Amino acid sequence: MNFSAPFLGLCWKTRLQVVLKIIKHYQEEGQGNEVVQGVLLGLVVDDRLEITNCFPFPQHTEDDADFDEVQYQMEMMRSLRHVNIDHLHVGWYQSTYYGSFVTRALLDSQFSYQHAIEESVVLIYDPIKTAQGSLSLKAYRLTPKLMEVCKEKDFSPEALKKANIAYENMFEEVPIVIKNSYLINVMLWELEKKSAVADRHELLSLASSNHLGKSLQLLMDRVDEMSQDIVKYNTYLRNVSKQQQQKHQYQQRRQQENIQRQSRGEPPLPEEDINKLFKPPQPPPRMESLLIAGQINTYCQNIKEFNAQNLGKLFMAQALQDYNN
Amino acid sequence: MSRFFTTGSDSESESSASGDETAPKAAGGPYSKPLLLSEDEEDTKRVVRSARDKRYEELTNLIRSIRNAMKIRDVSRCLEEFELLGRAWAKAKGVVDREGVPRFYLRILADLEDYLNELWEDKEGKKKMNKNNAKALSSLRQKLRKYNRDYEGQIAAYRQNPEQSDEDEEKSRRDSEGSGSSSGAEDDAGNFLKRRERDEPRSRYKESESEPESESDEDWGDSASESDSESDEDDGKFTSLASKFLKKDEERRGAERRREEKAKKKLERKSRREEEEEEEEGGEWEKVKGGVPLIKEKPKMFAKGTEITVGLVMKKLNEILQARGKKGTDRAAQIELLQHLVAVAHEHQLGVPLELKIKFNIVASLYDYNPNLAAYMKAELWQRCLGCIEELLELLFAHPEIFVGENVLEESENLSNPEQPFRVRGCVLTLVERMDEEFTKIMQNTDPHSQEYVEHLKDEARVCGIIGRLQRYLQAKGSPEELCRVYLLRVLHTYYKFDYAAARRRQVRPRPQEKEDEEKEKQEEEEEEEDSEALMERLCRFVYAKDRTDRIRTCAILCHIYHHALHSRWYRARDLMLMSHLQDNIQHADPPVQILYNRTMVQLGICAFRQGLIKDAHNALLDIQSSGRAKELLGQGLLLRSLQERNAEQEKVEKRRQVPFHMHVNLELLECVYLVAAMLLEIPYMAAHEFDARRRMISKQFHHQLRVGERQPLLGPPESMREHVVAASKAMKTGDWRRCHRFVVNEKMNGKVWDLFPEADQVRAMLVRKIQEESLRTYLFTYSSVYDSISMETLAAMFELDLPTVHGIISKMIINEELMASLDQPTATVMMHRTEPTATQNLALQLAEKLGNLVENNERVLDQRQGAYGGYFRDQKDGGYRKGDGYLRRGGFRQERGNY
C-alpha cells in the first residue's frame, strides 16, 4: 500500500488512500482553475520514500489574514502522531488546471521543501485528465543543478549558462508506484468481479475540441509571454552591445590621446575605472523564461499525448463504422 | 389712480377733503363724540365696555390722527401713527377674528395707500419735502405695501364698492345705537354727502355709456332724487356729451355746494325714512352694486368732465405704461386699466389706430403679468390674451390702411390725423411669437395625462388660426424677414402632425363615410385645402430662399425633413438632410435646435425602418440610442441626476427646453425600432464572424440587452419590449424565424409598438420578410459546416420565401465571400466548400502565427550573437519568411482540408 519512487535512484511508493484523499480534496474545494494544496506525510524506507498519508491545507480567504499556516501544520502533525500515523513531512501535493503548474510559486516552495527535507517531493494531480478516464498523478523534484542555482539566487543569464540549466533539466519526474496491502487488493478484485460492466465512457469520448482548444489557448498565452520575454532579453542584449561599442570607442580615444601625450612628453592620463563610466545594464532575470519554456514543454507533452490518444480513438471509431456499414 | 386725491380737478380734492373729515367720524361711530369732548372723563366713566368697543375705539383714535397727519402732509407722523395702529390692530385681533375686518380699517388702509401713491408720484412735491418726511414716506410706503398684502382681497372688495361698506358700517352702528342720536345724525349726514358725491359721477358715466334714458336710476329715484331734483337735471344734461363736462364744471361745483346745503336739510327727513326703508334699502343697494365694478374704474382714468381726446388718452396710456415694470405696480390692475382705456377710446370713437395701440399694450402687459420667465400664464389670462390678439388681428384686417411696425418711432406715430397715413408702433408678429411661447410654456407645465391638458391642447387650433391669419396679413404687407418668421411659426405648428386627410386622400378607394368627413374637414379649413406636404414645401421653400438668419432656415429644414420622414417620404427626407450638411455643424447650434435635430434624426430613422431600410434606420438611431440618454436628447424629460451635476438654475433652463407632450416621439417605439434593426443586422453578422478575433460590435446597446438577457437566472416568457427582442434574437440565432417572428410581432408588441405606426400592416409585412431573410442568412452561416449541399427548394420551404429570393440571397452571400459555396443550377442546390476553419483549426492558426513571432524574436537574439553577418541573414529571412511561408502554410492547409 505504498507509493514508491526512486529516491536518488530509488523509488517512491504511495498508498491508494493518499490518492483518494487528494482527489476528494480537489472535488470538495477545487473549482475550475483554482488550485488545492496539501501536505504529504510518510517515511523513508531503504531507498524509497513511502507516502502513507496526507492532509490538506485549508482554503485561504481574505477574511482570516492572520491565519498561521505553520501553526496549523504543526498542530495537525501533532494530532496525527497521537493517533499513531506517520508524521514525517515528506513533501506536498497540488492540483493543476490543464497541466499548468510550472510556475515560480511552485519552484520556490519546492525549493524550500527540498532545502529543508532533502527527500521532499511534489505530487501534481490533474483532475481534468483524471475525469477523462485516466488517473494523472505525477511526482516531481528539482534537479540538483537547479537546487544549486536556487541556492545562489542568481538568475542572470550567465549564471544559468554556467549552471548549464535548460528547461529540460529543471525538474525530474520520479516514477510512482501505488501499492496497497494485499487485503485491499483482494477486496478490489472482488469488487471488480461484482460490479457490472464498468460504465466508464469517458475514456472513449470522441469529443476532443474542447480540451484541445483550452490547451491551445493556454499554450498561446505562454507563447505570448515567451515572446515578450525574448523581446526584453533582446533589448538587453542590444543595450549591452551598444555599451560595449561605446566603451570600445572611449578606450580607443583615450589610447590615442595618451599616445599624443607621450609624443609631447606629457604624462599619460590616469586609467579611470571604465565600469564606473559605463554601468552595465541590468540583465533581465532568466528564470521566468525558463519556467515558461518548461511550462510550454509540459503543454506540448500534454497535447501530444492527448492527440495521440484521440487520433487512436478516431481511427478506431472509423474502423468500427466501416465495419458496421 | 386714487379716488380721493386725484390731482386733476378741484372739485375732486374738495370732495376728498370733506370725505376725509367725515370718514373718521363715521368710523368712530357713537363713541367718537364723547371722546372728543373729554378723554379723561371718558376713561373713568366708561369702565364697563365690551372688548370690541374698546379696541375699535383705540383704532379709530389712531385712524383719525393718521388722517390729520395726512392732511397736513406730515408723513413722518403718519408713519408713527401707522406703527401704533399696527400694534393696536394686533391687540384687536381677537375681536377681528370673531367679527371680520371692520370696514373703517380697510378704508384707512386703502386711503393711506392711495395717499402715499399720490405723494410718491408727485415728483415735484417730493423734492420739496424735507428729508425726514421723504424718508418716512418711502419706509411707510414699503411697510404699508407689505401690510396690505394680507388684506389684499378685502381691500379690493372695499375698493369695489366703498359705499356699500360705508353703509354697512353705518347700518351696524345705527343698529347698535338704536335710534339716531344727534351725533349719529351728523355722521350720517357726512356719510351721506360723501356717498352722494360718489354716486354722482358714477351714474353720469353709466348713462353716457349706455342708455341716456335710464337717467332715473333706481338708487337716485328712491333715496335722493326727490330732494335733489336739480342735480338730477344736471345729470340729464351731462349725460352723453363729454365735452359738456368741462363747460359745466363751474356750474356743477355750484350745484354741489347747493346740494350740500340741501343735504343738511334733507337729513331729518332721511333719518326718519331710513328706519322705514332699512330693509328695502339693502335690496336697493344690491342693485347698485351690479353696475358698480364696470363704471367704478372710470373715474380713475379721467377726471369728470374732461374731454377725452386722443392726446389725453395717449397721456393716460403713457402714465399707465410708466408704472409698468416697477416693483409696486399691480399688474392685474394695469391690465384692467388698459382694457377700460380701450373701452373709452372705442366709445368716444377716437379712431382705430389708438385702439390698436392700446390693444398692443394690453397684450404686452398680459405677457408681463408673470414676474419671471419660468411661470406660465393662468388659463383665464391666456384666454384673454388669445381673445385680445384675435381682436387685434381683426382690426388690422378691417383697416389695412394702418401701418403697423416696430420700427415706427414713438414720435412719428400717427394715431389721429386722418390726412396722413396712420402709423402705429407695435409688432403683431412679436406678440404672436410670444403667444406661441406662452402656449408652449402652458403645455410644458400641464400634466400631460390630465383632462386639463386636453383642454389646453384644444387651444392649439386657435393658436394655429391666429398664426394663419397673421400669415395672411403679413403676406400682404410684411417684409420677407417677417414672413420668414411667421412661416417658421406655421411650420413649427405643422411639421409634427401626421396629415391623416392627405394620407386618406391618397388611398385608392376612400370609403364614402370618410369622404364625407374629408369634405367636412375641407369645409372647415377652406383656406388650407392644400396638403400639409404642399404647405410645408411652399413655406420652407420661401424660407430657404429669403431667410437671412441661419437659425430660421435650419429650423425650417429640420422641420421639413421631419415632416417628410413622418409621411414616409424617405428619399426626399434623406436627400434634404444630406444636402443641408446639417450633420456637420449641428453641434454649434443652440440646444433647442439641437433637440429639433435629434427629433428629426429619430424620425428619419423610424421612417427608414418603415421602408425596410434597416441599415439606414440603425445608423440614424445609433447616435441617440447609444448614449442611453434618448429622453434627454429629445427634450422629453429630465434624467434623474445628482444635484452636483446640475444646479437649480440649469434645471430650470433645461425644463424650459422640454418639448410639449403632444409632440413627443414615443421612446419605446424608438427603442424597439432600434433594437429590432440592430437584431436584424447583428445576428447574421455574429453568426458570420463567430471565430473572428477582431470582430467588432455593430450595436453596443443591443449586446448589452443580450447580456442582460443571458444573466437572467430564470428565463420566463418575455414581458417587456426588450425581453421580446432578446428572445427573438435568440430564436434567430438558431435560424428559427417562426419563433423569432412570434416574438417580434405578437399581441403585446402590437399594442406597445407596431400599432403606433400609421401603416402598421405594411410595417409588419416588411418585418416578417426581413426576419425570414436574415434568419436564412444566419442559418446558412451557422450550419453551413454541417452540410455538404442544400437544396434551395428546401431552404425556400423552410423560410417560406420564394425560390428567386433564396437564390438572390445565397448568390449575394457567395459574391461577398461570406459563404464558401457554389450554386449547382440544374439541381438548384448549394454546394458547400469546406474552407472555413473550425474552432480548433482557428486556434491552431493563431498559435502558428504566434509561434512565427516567437521564432522571429528568437532569431533576433541569435543575430546579436552573430553580429552583422546574422543581420544580413535575418533581413533576407524576414522578407521572405513571414509572408511567403505564412501564406503557403495556410494555402496548403486549406487544400488539405478540402481533400479530406
UniProtKB/TrEMBL annotation, chain A:
Q: Does the keyword Secreted apply?
A: no
User: What is the predominant subcellular site recorded for this chain?
Assistant: cytoplasm
Q: Which residues form the MPN domain?
A: 12-146
Under Pfam families, the record lists: eIF3h_C, JAB
Instruction: Provide the residue span(s) of the region labelled Disordered.
Output: 244-288
GO CC field? eukaryotic 43S preinitiation complex; eukaryotic 48S preinitiation complex; eukaryotic translation initiation factor 3 complex
Q: Which UniProt keyword terms apply here?
A: Cytoplasm, Initiation factor, Protein biosynthesis
One of the GO biological process terms: formation of cytoplasmic translation initiation complex
- Positions with biased composition (Low complexity): 244-262
Q: Which PANTHER family match?
A: EUKARYOTIC TRANSLATION INITIATION FACTOR 3 -RELATED (PTHR10410)
Protein's name in the database = Eukaryotic translation initiation factor 3 subunit H
Protein's gene: EIF3H
UniProtKB/TrEMBL annotation, chain B:
Compositional bias (Basic and acidic residues) at which positions? 194-209, 246-263
The PCI domain covers: 661-837
UniProt keywords (A-Z) are: Cytoplasm, Initiation factor, Phosphoprotein, Protein biosynthesis
Please give the chief subcellular localization of this protein.
cytoplasm
Q: Which residue windows does the record flag with biased composition (Acidic residues)?
A: 210-235, 515-530
Listed under GO cellular component are: eukaryotic 43S preinitiation complex; eukaryotic 48S preinitiation complex; eukaryotic translation initiation factor 3 complex
GO molecular function terms attached to this record = RNA binding; translation initiation factor activity; translation initiation factor binding
Q: Which GO terms describe its biological process?
A: formation of cytoplasmic translation initiation complex
Cellular localisation:
Cytoplasm
Keyword Lipid metabolism applies:
no
Q: Where is this region: Disordered?
A: 1-45, 156-286, 507-530
List compositional bias (Low complexity) regions by residue number: 1-21
Family recorded in the similarity comment:
Belongs to the eIF-3 subunit C family.
Quaternary state and interactors? Component of the eukaryotic translation initiation factor 3 (eIF-3) complex, which is composed of 13 subunits: EIF3A, EIF3B, EIF3C, EIF3D, EIF3E, EIF3F, EIF3G, EIF3H, EIF3I, EIF3J, EIF3K, EIF3L and EIF3M.
Quote the function comment for this protein.
Answer: Component of the eukaryotic translation initiation factor 3 (eIF-3) complex, which is required for several steps in the initiation of protein synthesis. The eIF-3 complex associates with the 40S ribosome and facilitates the recruitment of eIF-1, eIF-1A, eIF-2:GTP:methionyl-tRNAi and eIF-5 to form the 43S pre-initiation complex (43S PIC). The eIF-3 complex stimulates mRNA recruitment to the 43S PIC and scanning of the mRNA for AUG recognition. Component of the eukaryotic translation initiation factor 3 (eIF-3) complex, which is involved in protein synthesis of a specialized repertoire of mRNAs and, together with other initiation factors, stimulates binding of mRNA and methionyl-tRNAi to the 40S ribosome. The eIF-3 complex specifically targets and initiates translation of a subset of mRNAs involved in cell proliferation.
The protein's name in its UniProt record: Eukaryotic translation initiation factor 3 subunit C
Instruction: Supply the source organism for this entry.
Output: Taeniopygia guttata (Zebra finch)
